[in-house]
Amino acid sequence: MSDSNGRKDLRMPDDGEVFAVVTNMLGANRVQVRCMDGTERTARIPGRMQKRIWIREDDVVLVEPWDWQDEKADVVWRYEKQDADQLRREGHIRQ
User: Fold this and answer.
1) What is the C-alpha end-to-end distance of the chain, expressed in Å?
2) Cα angle at 33 between 8 and 35, to 5 degrees?
3) Which protein family is named in the record (predicted)?
């Protein structure tokens, strides 16, 4: 699913989802993230992702902030390094 100049169609945020960069690993399946809406949040890695996807500091992820507690969120997607670079080039993520 890439075109002639190497651009891939990437998963974009749905309603209520925000791009975020992992800033700190907290342990117990939790990470600290800096969201692109300007909020620092504690994000939870759901069980379906824990064993299949390794999340490290500086990874770009999609998070879904909790309705009832805005400083917390769930990680819903992790981007590969080249996909994250593409998002930065296209201006979706600022460092």
Assistant:
1) 27
2) 65
3) Belongs to the eIF-1A family.
**Residue 41, strand partner residues:** 33
3-state secondary structure of 85: helix
Residues paired with 25 in a beta bridge: 31
**From CA 16, how far away is CA 65, in angstroms rounded?**
7
Q: Which amino acid is at 49?
A: M
For residues 14 and 86, give the distance between their C-alpha atoms in angstroms, rounded to a whole number: 18
φ/ψ of 68, rounded to 5, equals -95, -10
Q: Which residue reads 């117990």 in tokens? A: 28
* Residues 42-61: tens digit of each pLDDT: 999 988 887 788 899 999 99
pTM as predicted: 0.84
